[in-house]
Amino acid sequence: MFENKSIQTEVQAALWKEFEIFRVIRALQLRTIAYRCGISKNQGVEPFSVLIALVFLTFLGKSVHHFVSHCRNSLFDLGGKDVFYRLSTRTSINWRRFMMDISLRVIKHFKSFSSWQQRVLVIDDTVIPKAGKKIEEVSWVFDHSKGKSVKGFSAVVLGWSDRSSFVPVDFALQRSSRKVFNQSTETEMDKRMLAWHRRQEAVKDKPTLVKEMLKRAKQKGLDAGAVLFDSWYCTPKLVSSIFHEIGYDVIAMLKTTPTLTVVLNGKVYSTKRLWECVVPALKKETVTIGKDRVFVSSTNAFFGETLVKLVFCQPSEKSKSKKPIILLSTDTSLTSAKIIETYGQRWAVEVLFKEAKSKLFFGKNQSRSFEANICFLTLSLVRFIILSYMERINGDFRHKGSLYEGLRYEVEELNILAFMEKFINQLLSIIDGAKETFAFFMDKLTGIQEMVRHSIQNLLFQRCET
């Protein structure tokens, strides 16, 4: 009899050696990290297989429903779609730690390729629209790109960059006070659960979420030359907290308004009046940014209780798309050109949002559960981390779309090979069963043959006697 299990084990071992995505899973020790974060087996299907299948979904371009209906018996022996949703809604899994541990492991590989000043932390948020009527914790949030409020969440993301790669480290979902449906319809849970704490942070304001994420990053030993964010987060209170309490320098864009003020030479100026009262008297220099020339001037001032360096940037050619901006840095020793160059790294988070939403299913799941939304958002960012890691170790700094396509074809090839492996096993099983059936019929045929031969011999013998 053929040893089907031995053949299947050999085929699976060959797949893990041959395909790059499996090598990445092994290099990042995803199974160990998953176990530490509570993704362990209680009963039924092994949850790590379900987790890896969920990571593969986006590379196949399939939904959970389609995967369960057509692909679930290819790469893994999984159950129905309830297996996937049970994992995504488990309240004991520490999805934040899962993502952070993977990020820190990847960043550890990248650190040797960059200096301390090149490493920055980037903060930004994006709106995740939701069309469902009874999605937990969903609210009306303002979408600046559309200029109106939409139903959904606001995802505040913290990422790490060293100019060459961007790695998301942490995120938090935030909602407004304008909830879409009544709180009483939501799931009640034990307050000791990790999921309950994620629900509680959803009602906090964005500056509070930012401080909590940066504190966690600091506790994990994540060093960076500065924290970057846009003008929405640039307030005296938040800048002071990050610089004095947490211990990171800040480089940010300053909002030009009549209400936001700085103190310069003992006088209070609104950021809007700085262009009229202060900038004309400052010495200007020309800095080239890409293909554009920018007139730059700088001075030191107090932003709240923090001494900062203000950098005024004016495009040499006036246009609607190129407006004057003010940059702020808590490190006053940096040159204006260095501050501008460093702040340019903030654009990496915009690339993350664009690619994650368009290709990595970021915010595209249709589950009503808040825990499931946390799970699928985490997995989307983990996919981006895997792509960033593969991009860096391969020395391929092209657009991640090429890596995405490569992984998609690789997973499709895995799917075909897995189907072939299962077909061969089924064929071997059929042959094994057929051997017994054929042996039974052969015994019967042999018996009949002996009976016929014996009858013929008897008949001939009788005739000979007569």
Automatic annotation (TrEMBL):
Residues covered by the Transposase IS701-like DDE domain: 117-257
Tree of life domain: Bacteria
Coiled coil (residue ranges): none
Protein name: Transposase IS4 family protein
